[in-house]
Amino acid sequence: MAAVRPFDKLPALNSAAFLLVGSDEGLQQKLAEAILREKKNFKISIHLATSLPLPSERDHLRPRIDLIAFMIDIKSKYSLKNVEASLAHVDASFFLGKVCFLVTGVGRVNYCSVEMNAIWKLGEVYCSPVLFCELELEGIRVATAQRLLRMLQICAGHVPGVSALSFGSLMRNSADD
Prior knowledge:
By secondary structure, the chain is an alpha/beta fold. It is 37% helix and 17% strand. The chain has helices spanning 25-37, 77-87, 116-125, 138-155, 164-176; strands at 15-21, 43-49, 67-73, 99-104, 130-132. It has a 5-stranded parallel β-sheet, sandwiched between helices. Helix 3 (116-125) links the parallel strand 4 and strand 5. It is globular, with a radius of gyration of 15 Å. The relative contact order is 0.19.
């Protein structure tokens, strides 16, 4: 079980691969379906995992991963611990704009069991944007899917003149304002 690396495989023409890592498989599935329903001009493959590392026996079949979204449920300390443990299996070069943290359940802050400072610190330590959403609501799920799809398009190199690194830097700087 090796670390996930962004550049160990050649990119496929007009395609992108997205990895969703999180403990809530139901929300992962709903978000993946919302992303696939969106209009796009490239082929997309979405892979779901509850944690990393990914099994190595299917590594030769797995495409190059262009973007990883770690899902953290704000009402589950287990989901944060799961993401923290999974981060050790991601190659450091992924953190140059190809990783984001997706915090779910923000509509129920009164049931919050995860410290917001821990989430912000995670984004800061790994130089990755933190996105907040409520995937239970269809409208917000669609908006989140559109945002992630645009990020995936940039990370896969389908937007001329914009790299994943410059976009990630822009996302972090706008969060600081």
